Structure formats: C-alpha cells, structure tokens
C-alpha cells in the first residue's frame, strides 16, 4: 500500500499568516492515464471532510483561491495564503492513484 | 443536487456484524463510484473500499477478509457489511463520491457490549 507521510502534524497560526503543509508518498502518484490523483481535504471540527484540491492543483468548487496545491510524483504541498478563522481544522491529503486509496495522518491547524 | 446519507445502528456488540446503508440522490450509481471511509474518534481517515459504477468492488487489504460492499441501483443505495467487529472499529463511517467532492454527514458506530 502507498504510505502518505504528512507534515507537520500540527500548526499554530495567526489570522492572516500563510502556511504550508507537506505530503510525501512512498510511490509515484502518476496514474497510467497520466494524471496524478492527489487530493487535499479540510475537516472543520465536528464536520465531514470537504475537498479543497483535486489532482494536485485544481481548486474544488467554491474553494477560495487562498488555497493552492503544488507538487509532482511523490512530493506535494498545500499552501494557505492569509489564513482565516474558517480555515481552522484538520487537513488531510489522500491519494487515489493506487488501490487501496490512502490518507495522510492529518495536520491540525490551530489559532496561535 | 448530489446528496449522500449514511444510516445504520449506532451500537454494535463485539463480534457482531455491522450493516450500513448509503442512500444517494442527484446522481446515478451506474455512473459514479461510491466509497466508504471511516474515522476512529480523534484519529485520521481510513479508506475502506468502493463500489464502482459498473458494479465492481475494491477493498482495503487490511479489512478485505471482513468487509463486503454491495448496492441496489433501483433504490439508489450502497451497502457496507463488516463482520467480527471489535472495539477499534468504533468510529464515524462516511460514504463519499466523485474523488471525495461529496460526503455524507457520517454515522457514528460504537462497538461495545
């Protein structure tokens, strides 16, 4: 199974600050169809996850452009510019290239 | 619009079988895959398996021996059955689709005697 190593496990930020979260996979996430199925999700407290980014860098519907995703092969990054209060929660990366799909352990974003 | 809703018993006894239903609307099960994902309290997400649009299934290798996913397209429902439940199967169970774009609200399952 593909192991997703997500860092850091937690982040303490001030509103307006920018932050980055890393996700590294144990295998390349390039699918045989040429696409890279790496997604980023945000789970606000007590809520279901919400997809932010799909296929590395594509913004999900209704997601503010403060969020951006970059990376390739085995190394991926989610950047949040100008953190707002609604961004607090747990961020998850998930690969959907290889079955079984696998998640990172999560990064908890908290207010400083 | 697309909606998914999980339902099932909130409490299951150890060694018993869990049966959950994901009822969907706004799309056809014969056009999109539906996945099951679970989350133990305070922990991360775990992909359990999927029902593909064509009726094929795939499972997490760690759960494969205990898990079965099926569907009834006429009722727009996807089912999860998992046997030999233990306390560490306690958690919130979600169904999701379209590359995790849509999620149900989740259903909490507690395994306890």
Key words describing this protein structure:
heterodimer, A: 112 residues, mainly beta, seven-stranded mixed sheet, four-stranded antiparallel sheet, 0% helix, globular, B: 113 residues, 11 strands, 50% strand
Fold and architecture overview:
- With 112 residues, chain A is mainly β.
- Chain A contains no helices and 11 strands.
- In chain A, the strands form 2 sheets. In chain A, strands 2, 4, 5, 6, 9, 10 and 11 form a 7-stranded mixed sheet that branches. Chain A has a 4-stranded antiparallel sheet with strand order 1-3-8-7, with no helix packed on it.
- In chain A, 35% of the residues are buried.
- The model of chain A has no long low-confidence stretch (mean pLDDT 97).
- Chain B has 113 residues and is mostly beta strands.
- In chain B, strands 2, 4, 5, 6, 9, 10 and 11 form a 7-stranded mixed sheet that branches.
- Chain B is globular.
- The model of chain B has no long low-confidence stretch (mean pLDDT 97).
- Chains A and B meet through strand 5 and strand 10 of A and strand 5 of B.
Summarize this, please?
Chain A is mainly beta.
How are the elements arranged and paired?
The complex is a heterodimer of chains A (112) and B (113).
Chain A lengths: L3 E4 L2 E4 L5 E7 L12 E6 L6 E5 L3 E2 L7 E6 L2 E6 L8 E7 L6 E2 L3 E5 L1
Parallel strand pairs in A: 2-11
Antiparallel strand pairs in A: 1-3, 3-8, 4-5, 4-9, 5-6, 7-8, 9-10, 9-11
Chain B lengths: L2 E5 L3 E2 L5 E8 L8 E6 L6 E6 L5 E3 L7 E6 L4 E6 L8 E7 L4 E2 L3 E5 L2
Parallel strand pairs in B: 2-11
Antiparallel strand pairs in B: 1-3, 3-8, 4-5, 4-9, 5-6, 7-8, 9-10, 9-11
